[in-house]
Each structure stands twice: as C-alpha cells, then as structure tokens.
Amino acid sequence: QLQLVESGGGLVQPGGSLRLSCTPSGFTLEHYAIGWFRQAPGKEREGVLCVNTKREPTYYADSVKGRFTISRDNAKNTVYLQMNNLKPEDAAVYYCAAHGFYCPPSGSRNVYDYWGKGTLVTVSS
C-alpha cells in the first residue's frame, strides 16, 4: 500500500544534468535503503544505485559511476539522484524503491518492498 513518488524528470541535452527526487507517501524513509532503477523502451528494468541507512552508496550499474551520485536528506524525508553528463543511453523511466536497512548487492527489483510510478528522463539533442 505504501508508495514512493519520483519527480525531476524531463528533457535534457547530452552532457546536461538533472536531479531526481524520491519522497514517500505517508511514511518516513529514515530506516529504509532507497534504490534507483531505470527502464528504457524494449529493455528490462535495471538497478542504477542505492543508498543505505548509513548513507553509503552501492552502484549497480558501472556505466553511471563518476556521473551519478545518490544522497539522502532525512530532515526533508527525501532521497536524491544527481545525474551529470547525461548520455542518450541514460534515457529511461526512472523509479525509486525502498528496502529495509541495507542495499541488496545484486540490484534485483524482486527484493524491494515499495515503489514509485516513475519519472521520465529523455536525453536528446
């Protein structure tokens, strides 16, 4: 029943930046690890990265290392995905999801408990 809400998606040119936000609907994120996933047209949903309750990141996709970072602000009850130097292959619907305490190492969507409906990121010139 509990859901997350993503925001911040939009159209950006290659090399540009976006910051996505993940906020809960009716609960606190303090004791949850939050993962970001993405799904491009015709492809399976893949894990991007995750942050645990100790604010430690786990990168699921090697392709975003050095470009994407994740952070959390417990006072604002929000987790952010900062995306820099965006590439056309980054275009996808981005989802955030909650898991208890720790980031699953494999990035499998199956073990996450609560999900948002996604926000669309388009990278095009």
What is the oligomeric state here? single chain
The topology string of helices and strands comes to EEEEEEEEEEE
**Helicity range of the residues?**
under 10%
Distance between the termini: 39 Å
The tally of helices reads 0
Low-confidence stretches: none
- Count of DSSP strands: 11
SSE map:
Elements: E1 3-7, E2 10-12, E3 18-25, E4 32-39, E5 46-51, E6 57-59, E7 68-73, E8 78-83, E9 92-100, E10 114-115, E11 119-123
Parallel strand pairs: 2-11
Antiparallel strand pairs: 1-3, 3-8, 4-5, 4-9, 5-6, 7-8, 9-10, 9-11
Question: What do you see in this structure?
Answer:
The protein has 125 residues and is an all-beta fold. Helix content is 0%, strand content 49%. The protein has strands spanning 3-7, 10-12, 18-25, 32-39, 46-51, 57-59, 68-73, 78-83, 92-100, 114-115, 119-123. The termini are far apart. The mean pLDDT is 95.
